[in-house]
Task: structure prediction
Amino acid sequence: MPHFTIEHSANLDERVDFDRLCRTIHKTILDTGLFEIGAVRVRTVRSAHYAIADLLPQNSFIDMSFRIGRGRSDAEKQATGAAIFDAVTQELASLFDTPHFALSLEIREIDPDLSWKKNAIHPRLRQKGN
Result:
């Protein structure tokens, strides 16, 4: 159940390759060895309307949320968060060249008693040995 959401300000559309960013995060998640490939979801949500800090039009943000199921230690969650944040920071290095960009990441554990899932992708990938 690793679901990764990248919420971003619309003024980043021309400055960030979000397809590449999603693939970078996807790979980083899998490289931890903590998550099964059939469960990984990385997606973006574009925010067309926002008010950031001092309201300058060049202000921008990316807020990342990583929802995972229970079962990982605090050290594993910390290492995963650090790996993802480092990969994203490297990929978006040019955005930090101006004083108008904010980046954040939060990891949240999902309560299994309050989460329902049905996944037809798992069986297909498990048959392939992935």
Summary: The chain has a mean pLDDT of 94. Residues 74-91 form the longest helix (18 residues). The longest strand covers residues 60-69. Residues 38 and 120 are 9 Å apart (CA to CA).
